[in-house]
Specification:
Arc Repressor Mutant, subunit A, HTH_TetR, DNA-binding, mainly alpha, HTH-type_Tx_Regulator, elongated, about 210 residues, about 0% strand
Length: about 210
Amino acid sequence: MEQAFQDLDNWLKTAQMPNGKKKVLKAALELFSKQGYDGTSTAQIAETSGMSQATIFKYFKSKDDLLLFIIEPIIEHILPVYGKTFAKQIQSNEHDLKELIHFIVHNRYQFLVQNKDAVMILTTQILVNDQIKGMFLKKITSIKAIFLNNVWQALNDTKELRSDLDVTQFLRLMIGQLLFYFLQNQRITPERTAQQIESDLDQIETTVLRAINK
């Protein structure tokens, strides 16, 4: 079985494939995340990678095939690895609700930043590409039990959650807050300093706690 890695850059560095193919993938990853899939041509990918268009089509049947080759690792390997590692970290220590939310907010934001190019591509393609949306939902469903048995259980064990709060409401709140902030930083305010980001994440924690605490 192919080893699962925790970020796409590491996956590309260690994957067994020709260097030319890696250059094409890195160029496509950069351009798709900045310009969008539809706004990127194979000619631009060739120029950025230093490879010819003929070389691109030697490795990939089409631009769609190239997109799937980028998306599949983060869906099939990176998300499950992070899901399992994240759940173990949650279960490893006793926490109160405030400490758990602090860990979740910072850990998940770090995941988004560490895989920012792939996340930017994934979030846009889920909205317009049914095949990628289906792949993503299938994988999320497969790791849902891990979340319920570990993360959600740990949150409930604090005895501090609102009794009428369910897991879907919590996930919608947490994902909405973090993903919106991440996308805002990537597209609208990319000049935020580390200190400002830390302050912003603290505010997100406060917002989440107010919404879920008894």
